[in-house]
Design brief:
Helix content: 25-40%
Oligomer: single chain
Shape: globular
Largest sheet: 5 strands, antiparallel
CATH class of the largest domain: Alpha Beta
CATH topology of the largest domain: Herpes Virus-1
Distance between the termini: 41 Å
Strand order of the largest sheet: 4-3-5-6-7
Order of helices and strands: HHHEHEHHHEEHEEE
Radius of gyration: 18 Å
Structural class: alpha+beta
CATH architecture of the largest domain: 2-Layer Sandwich
Strand content: 5-15%
Number of strands: 7
CATH superfamily of the largest domain: Zinc/RING finger domain, C3HC4 (zinc finger)
Number of helices: 8
């Protein structure tokens, strides 16, 4: 119960402000099954380090879904007996252990870099989900920007960030306070790339993953 209360307080922060209702609507608006179906074939091509931790007793996301995801990503799967839908809240130790194992493997196999050094977005190395489909908004950006900060420039969030490929602005995602999309609406800059949570680029005018 204590952990559930702590999680509620943490998640509520994203909506406990004057524009909280707008934040919820922004988060829910992009939720479409078609997007999930569209990105599924691209998962085996991502080539990113991954580990899957799945609750064996999850009634909503069945264990077989976890095995399919792990197979597509070429990743291991840690089945948690009795684990249900909210794994980060119910079993944070298992999530942390999986992340630590992944970090140890990356450190052993490559040069250690700081989070700010790591993303250097190049046109031919963007994590595109639909690499065969051109986007004129992405093509119109002469030089893809690097992130100019290490956290959301508005609220300080340090994970699930989105980087504007036009100016390098760093903002939090829709599931937090949506500062990345708010910045895009303000500036008209069309395309962002995920950083520290996800591997994709997204075009706001087209409202689709690239």
């Amino acid at each position: 119960m204590r952990r559930a209360r702590e999680s509620t307080v943490l998640h509520w922060k994203g909506y406990d402000h004057a524009r909280g209702g707008e934040a919820l609507v922004r988060q829910m608006r992009p939720l479409r099954n078609a997007d999930t179906e569209a990105v599924a074939p691209a998962l085996p091509r991502l080539g990113v380090p991954a580990a899957v931790v799945w609750g064996a007793a999850d009634r909503f996301q069945k264990l077989r879904y976890g095995h399919r995801l792990a197979s597509d990503l070429g990743a291991s799967i840690d089945e948690v007996a009795g684990g249900k839908h909210f794994m980060p809240e119910d079993h944070p130790d298992r999530i942390a252990a999986a992340r630590q194992r992944g970090a140890a493997r990356r450190t052993a196999s490559s040069r250690a870099v700081t989070p700010y050094e790591q993303p250097e977005f190049e046109r031919d190395r963007l994590p595109l989900i639909h690499p065969g489909e051109e986007c004129e908004h992405l093509c119109d950006i002469d030089r893809l920007a690097r992130p100019r900060a290490e956290a959301c420039e508005e609220c300080g969030m340090e994970r699930t960030l989105r980087v504007c490929l036009s100016c390098g602005h760093v903002g939090c995602c829709e599931s937090w306070r949506g500062h990345a999309s708010a910045r895009a609406e303000e500036t008209g800059h069309p395309v962002i790339a995920a950083w520290r949570g996800g591997a994709f680029a997204y075009c706001y005018p087209h409202r689709r993953y690239l």
